[in-house]
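wait is this the right file?? whatever heres the structure
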């Protein structure tokens, strides 16, 4: 069974593919982080600390923005993968975005995203990407689902980074035992506009938040 999900994103050129893998209990985060710092082209991925992810849509909204910037020639970072990590931030401080949303030596759960395009230098087959991940990522692959992501989300970080503390509507969501309901929280974050942070303003004026991004898995 493949550890990768290949995702088609609406409004992104068909010659670009987004491959996503999710690893829990990663044992070699320090090594992976060092490869990014060294700008090793073999490790050109968006490596996201899953503790700051709240859903698939959260990550794929950032992927949409990054790929669009690449196609438009408006990247603010060295490549589409670093752009994706930076796009998770609501601020313009790129270095801070890397620290907050990207992998760190202490990361335990990691979402790896590989964007491939039409140019020969950027082409990697699904098999190439999967084999490289299996060889170099020491972790347990799990499905890239909202349910899997919810088990990694650190809501204290999410609240801090997105300035969500003190929002009554978020605090009020409880399950039957009186505890916060993760599924309802990320649904309401979507409805209230958290994912707008990663969306281009031109689309925000056209589509409501609940219909802005539609995804189909292949």
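ok assuming it is, sequence goes like this
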């Amino acid at each position: 069974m493949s550890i990768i999900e290949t995702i088609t994103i609406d409004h992104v050129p068909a010659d670009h593919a987004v491959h996503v893998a999710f690893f829990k209990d990663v044992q070699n985060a320090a090594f992976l982080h060092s490869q990014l710092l060294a700008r090793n082209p073999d490790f050109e991925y968006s490596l996201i600390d899953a503790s700051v992810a709240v859903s698939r849509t959260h990550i794929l909204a950032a992927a949409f923005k990054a790929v669009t910037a690449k196609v438009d020639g408006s990247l603010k970072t060295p490549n589409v993968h670093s752009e994706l990590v930076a796009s998770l931030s609501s601020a313009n401080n790129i270095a801070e975005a890397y620290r907050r949303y990207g992998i760190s030596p202490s990361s335990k759960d990691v979402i790896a995203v590989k964007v491939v395009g039409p140019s020969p230098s950027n082409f990697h087959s699904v098999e190439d990407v999967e084999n490289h991940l299996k060889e170099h990522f020491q972790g347990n692959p799990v499905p890239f689902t909202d349910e899997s992501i919810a088990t990694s989300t650190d809501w204290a970080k999410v609240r801090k980074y997105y300035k969500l503390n003190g929002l009554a509507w978020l605090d009020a969501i409880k399950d039957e035992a009186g505890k916060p309901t993760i599924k309802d929280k990320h649904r309401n974050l979507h409805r209230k506009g958290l994912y707008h942070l990663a969306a281009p303003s031109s689309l925000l004026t056209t589509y409501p938040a609940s219909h802005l991004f539609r995804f189909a898995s292949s």
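The two ends are 14 Å apart (CA to CA). so i think its the right one actually
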